[in-house]
Specification:
By secondary structure, the chain is of the alpha/beta class. The structure holds ligand MGD (2 copies), iron/sulfur cluster (SF4) and molybdenum atom (MO). Keywords: 4Fe-4S, Iron, Iron-sulfur, Metal-binding, Oxidoreductase.
């Protein structure tokens, strides 16, 4: 029997592999033996006809790919990199890479090629939360753990659909509810998550800042905030108090679409709850004001003092299995490594550690900037930007201007593969080993369960080959993932709150490690939390008579994003039709649309054809299309948050036509 961990979502469930069977690990603290359909079906996805099994190359994206050798393919890429100015090279990584993969790619890009254009799809996912945590509590540090729900009185889920996106955690929420936990769900859709709520608040899309500001203002006005905590541990209180004197309360409540009674019922529960966790995900992060939405939410915890104690705190629910580990390593272009930035001192420390003098001192391009930056080489690994970036028609135009696009993928049917020149076959989950950090800082180990397909290589090894092709054999002389992990462990000593040196790599699979367990104070220089006054600036795309609907996009339980691993003929667990667009019955009636009708959804940027699913679980004038519909981003808007540069995926103005 081998113990390993699921490679899908940020919950990071432990599992056991016995000959050819996968089951949940009953001794594992997070899932206690249970797995969701994705975890159970991990093995199925290793063995499908759509695996990418050999390197492929072509000169032009209109040509057919030809099978190539590793040697030749790496040569072509290395030669191109050597002749390209470093600021014209980009690495587009993924929160699904293992920590060792991330470490090597980051070291190669930032440390030796000398470009900080090393970013990740987490930019489209977590970057607003990263920025908000840094601003308010001083570091990209999640100060709550999932198990805290058992010590809490109230769990608020804002823009998070745990029933479909963090399934096993959702089961734990249901268990905690039996023990007395109250649950509030804030979502424009009455989701499966909302079904377990004590109070469901059908908020209007994009008005979460108003909602959280209403809470903060009331806490201050009614003197219900924690005065002692604020006096001793919090900055900017007077400023916030003064700013709140002039906010238009009635207008704010109106914007949320909630009634006075709904808010009062909620506020009564809120103020009578001693321990509170507020969890959120894409409903807040993916926004032109994603950082501000996070800050408005975190403000409430700073005012009440519901932070850094059991059963309390602002809990960002990371989506991908190792988005957190990637951030720790330094996989965002806006940081260098181990949570260090591009200040002189940090560059000096990291240069010394890596024994290099090539590190550039300014942040690199973000994933959401790379395609329009006239790059000459773009290396994409474990993610599918043509599928996942907003405003796809423009993405397709831009990617065609890049002379060399390299895609490293374990499967052959991504959308990006249509625009690449070189395809390199990676070994997927089960065929490789390495570590990952889940959404609440638990470091676990994926184990190799089956032989690696002959020509496939783990992602770290592919970056190592590339490093060697560029002449850095000595600096990238790793024999296995353990050696890389141990170097990374050593590196975490450069950051005073992140030391991971006590972990034993060999014991990790059986004994996960939780880092930062003892951090119970703010990580800002003055050890105080920072309040920020933020306002809903209504910056998202406006609806009008021509485009009267707001489009939401999001997860369904059994599918993983583009579906290369989950939308397979052999996967028997499809509990939901994938091709649909939810629409409210009143809107459908006005448009004379019946359930199942073929419809065209159109935005200013593109269109797609799908089927109407009429349901009163969605607010009027709002639509929902699951992201397993690969065409979804032909519709979405490429507006970005000005600080995090995360896209405003959830607020595109659209209209519907019957086909
Ligand atoms: N099954 C499955 N699970 C997954 C994934 C997957 O592909 N499939 N992906 C993983 C990843 S990478 C991520 S990031 C997470 C995402 O996890 P979640 O964010 O929980 O999932 P989403 O479905 O994107 O939707 C979030 C909710 O936000 C709501 N929402 C939209 N706009 C607003 C708004 O303005 N305000 C509020 N309050 N709510 C709003 C939507 O209606 C939706 O129900 O899931 C992870 N888990
Ligand atoms: N409209 C809309 N767009 C969105 C979102 C949304 O909510 N709405 N969410 C955004 C978010 S939060 C995210 S995280 C992104 C996700 O978007 P992507 O990251 O593009 O989605 P995936 O389908 O998970 O892509 C992972 C890729 O890695 C490949 N792969 C699998 N295993 C391996 C391996 O071991 N090695 C390598 N090298 N490759 C492998 C898979 O075949 C797949 O092509 O989408 C973003 N885009
Ligand atoms: S909840 Fe997440 S980690 Fe757990 S089995 Fe499901 S996909 Fe895997
Ligand atoms: Mo994500």
């Amino acid at each position: 029997m081998i113990k390993s961990v699921c490679g899908y979502c940020g919950v990071g469930c432990g599992l056991e592999f016995d000959k050819d069977k996968l089951i949940g690990d009953v001794t594992y603290p997070i899932n206690e033996g249970s797995l969701c359909s994705k975890g159970i079906s991990e093995l199925i996805s290793i063995d499908t006809s759509t695996r990418l099994l050999r390197p492929h190359i072509r000169d032009n994206i209109n040509d057919e790919y030809k099978v190539s050798s590793w040697e030749k393919s790496i040569d072509i890429i290395a030669n191109k990199i050597k002749e390209t100015p470093k600021d014209k090279i980009g690495f587009y990584l993924s929160g699904q890479l293992l920590t060792e993969d991330y470490y090597i790619a980051n070291k190669l890009g930032k440390g030796f090629i000398g470009t900080n254009n090393v970013d990740t799809n987490s930019r489209t996912c977590m970057s607003s939360a990263v920025l908000a945590y840094k601003k308010s509590i001083g570091a990209d540090f999640v100060p709550v753990r999932m198990n805290d729900i058992f010590k809490s009185d109230l769990l608020i889920l804002a823009g998070a659909n745990t029933a479909e996106a963090h399934v096993v955690f959702h089961n734990q929420i249901k268990k905690a509810k039996k023990g007395g936990l109250k649950i509030v769900v804030i979502d424009p859709r009455y989701t499966d998550t909302a079904k377990v709520a004590d109070i469901y608040l059908p908020i209007k899309v994009g008005s979460d800042i108003d909602f959280f500001n209403l809470i903060s203002k009331r806490l201050i006005d009614d003197e219900l905030y924690n005065k002692e905590f604020v006096d001793n541990h919090i900055n900017n209180f007077e400023l916030l108090k003064n700013k709140f004197k002039r906010v238009p309360v009635t207008k704010m409540l109106k914007r949320t679409g909630l009634t006075h009674e709904q808010f009062e019922d909620f506020f009564e529960l809120y103020t009578s709850s001693e321990n509170i966790i507020t969890a959120w995900t894409m409903g807040l992060n993916q926004s032109v004001q994603g950082v501000d939405k996070n800050l408005a939410l975190i403000n409430t915890h700073l005012l009440t003092g519901n932070i850094f104690k059991d059963g309390n705190g602002p809990l960002s629910l990371t989506g991908q299995p190792n988005a957190m580990g990637g951030r720790e390593v330094g996989g965002l272009s806006t940081m260098l490594a181990v949570h260090l930035g591009f200040d002189k001192k940090s560059i000096k420390k990291v240069s010394k550690f890596w024994k290099t003098d090539k590190i550039d001192n300014k942040p690199g391009l973000t994933a959401t900037q790379m395609l329009e930056a006239n790059l000459d080489v773009l290396i994409i690994c474990h993610t599918d930007p043509v599928y996942h970036l907003p405003n796809r028609n423009r993405v397709e135009e831009l990617i065609q201007n890049i002379p060399m696009v390299v895609e490293i993928n374990a499967y052959s049917n991504s959308e990006t593969s249509k625009f690449a020149h070189v395809l390199l076959p990676a070994a997927p989950w089960g065929e490789k080993e390495g570590t990952q950090t889940n959404l609440d800082r638990t470091i676990t180990k994926q184990e190799k369960l089956t032989r690696t397909s002959i020509e496939c290589k783990p992602d770290w090894e592919i970056f190592k080959l590339l490093a060697c092709g560029l002449g850095y054999e000595k600096e990238f002389d790793y024999a296995n993932t353990k050696e890389i992990f141990q170097e990374y462990q050593e590196m975490t000593k450069l950051n005073n709150y992140m030391d991971m040196s006590e972990i034993s790599y060999d014991k990790l699979a059986a004994q996960p490690f939780i880092w930062g367990k003892d951090i119970k104070t703010f990580l800002t220089p003055d050890k105080k939390g920072n309040l920020f006054f933020v306002e809903n600036k209504l910056l998202s795309e406006k609806t009008n008579l021509e485009f009267p609907f707001i489009l939401l996009t999001g997860r369904t339980r059994d599918q993983w994003h583009s579906g290369t691993k989950t939308n397979l003929p052999k996967t028997l667990l499809k509990y939901k039709e994938l091709n649909f667009c939810e629409i409210n019955p009143e809107d459908a009636e006005i448009l004379n649309i019946k359930n199942g009708d073929a419809i065209k959804v159109i935005s200013r940027r593109g269109e797609l054809t799908t089927k109407a699913l009429i349901t009163d679980t969605i607010r009027e004038k709002t639509l929902f299309i699951p992201i397993s519909n690969r065409d979804v981003n032909y519709l979405t808007n490429d507006l970005l948050d000005r600080e995090s540069l995360q896209p405003d995926y959830n607020h595109s103005a659209t209209r519907i036509e019957r086909v």
